[in-house]
Fold this protein.
Amino acid sequence: MTTNKKEEYLIYKLADNMKGCVKIDADLFRKLDVKRGLRNEDGTGVLVGLTNIGNVVGYERTADGLRPIEGKLYFRGYEVSDLVHAVLHEQRFGYEEIAYLLLSGRLPDSE
């Protein structure tokens, strides 16, 4: 399989973006009390690691305390249902765009 210069440039550009997304100081897990699972002891959702790759929300805070809600899943700060609706509505390449979002931390541009 051969690649042209533009494809090679894009691969290196993507690889450089990925390097910046994966470095996490191990002490931050303890310092910030970040869990490595998806739920706290009280059943509330937790941030998935320190990467902001995903977040699970299963409640909302009210004056009366926590109220369970239909679960919401976020990838890199975007609600997954919003991403799906946009991809379907605009007939874009959803799998590729979401993979890029998860790897790089942002949605791809037209390039």
The two ends are 21 Å apart (CA to CA). The beta strands are 54-62, 65-75, 78-79. The mean pLDDT is 80.
